[in-house]
Amino acid sequence: MSNNFVAPRFFAQAIPPYTEGMRVGLLGGSFNPPHEAHRAISQFALKRLRLDRVWWLVTLGNPLKENGTLHELGARMQAARDVADDPRIEVSCLESVIRTRYTIDTINTLRRRLSGLRFVWIMGADNLAQFHRWQHWRRIADQVPIAVIDRPPQSFRALASPAAQALARYRVPETDAALLPDRPAPAWVFLTGLKLNLSSTGLRNPDGSWKGPK
After folding, report:
1. Any domain includes 214
2. Could you report the per-residue pLDDT of 90-127, keeping only the tens digit for each?
3. Where are the beta strands (DSSP E) in 59-115?
4. Which pLDDT tens digit goes with each residue over 33-66?
5. Is the dihedral of CA 52, 149, 195, 79 positive or negative?
6. Boundaries of each Cytidyltransferase-like domain copy (predicted)?
7. Which 3 state secondary structure label does DSSP give 212?
């Protein structure tokens, strides 16, 4: 668990370069494999939210999914760097360093140790649809603003989900998306206009191996 002591040098090695006051989007996932939609979502968020950086947090595995075919962390990290191919997108293994699979632990650690940065959690609409199943999801929403990227045909299911309904009064107009990193949580925005619908599941073979060059 992330409550275990982590030596400062190991934490520092897992954190991309930053400067105080930087606006950083956090995109967590198994990246098994990483693909063009991860990159497109990140660049979309960089523009719409006026972020300085997006950090890809490559997880040890999704607690809500079967992880039997998950590739080794180092392979996923390197593949993510190859796909990102943008100096504004950084790849981090923070969750392996703090030994957690839970987003709440990651956010708590980042806010405690990097209090001078302004974080936004980035998720696809498919994740909003099941956000109420995440461990301590209400605490996550209370800790950091959230940007939800529309992923048709998930739009209706996402906006009708228990989490979206519970957090409805904290939704920020899409026209004010650039202000989201400066808003106190809870606050979230639903961003439309990105027309890319790849998924890691569709890029894996039945045995878990990755399909050809991306």
Report:
1. no
2. 999 999 999 998 999 999 999 999 999 999 999 999 99
3. 89-92
4. 899 999 999 999 999 999 999 999 999 877 656 5
5. positive
6. 26-188
7. coil
Q: Whole domain around residue 77: which residue ranges? A: 21-196
**What CATH number is associated with residue 71?**
3.40.50.620
Determine the pLDDT at residue 204.
39
Residue 170: inside a domain = yes
- Which residues lie across from 175 on neighbouring strands? none
CA 47 – CA 53 distance, rounded (Å): 10
Q: Give the strand order in the sheet containing 118-124.
A: 89-92, 53-58, 23-29, 118-124, 146-149, 188-191
Q: Residue 85: which of 147, 34, 21 has the closest Cα?
A: 34
162-195 pLDDT per residue, tens? 999 999 999 999 999 999 999 999 999 999 999 7
Q: Taking the model in full, what pTM does it have?
A: 0.86
Spatial contact of 155 and 27, defined as CB atoms under 8 Å apart:
no
Question: Which letter does DSSP use for residue 45 in this model?
Answer: H
In a domain, 4, yes or no: no
**Length of the chain, please?**
214
Burial category of 160 from C-beta neighbours within 10 Å (exposed 0-12, middle 13-18, buried 19 and up): exposed
**Residue 101, number of CB atoms within 10 A of its CB:** 19
Q: Are 188 and 138 in contact (CB under 8 A)?
A: no
Please indicate, yes or no, if residue 59 is contained in any of the structural domains.
yes
DSSP H helices, the chain, are 8-14, 36-48, 73-84, 94-97, 103-113, 125-129, 137-143, 155-159, 162-166
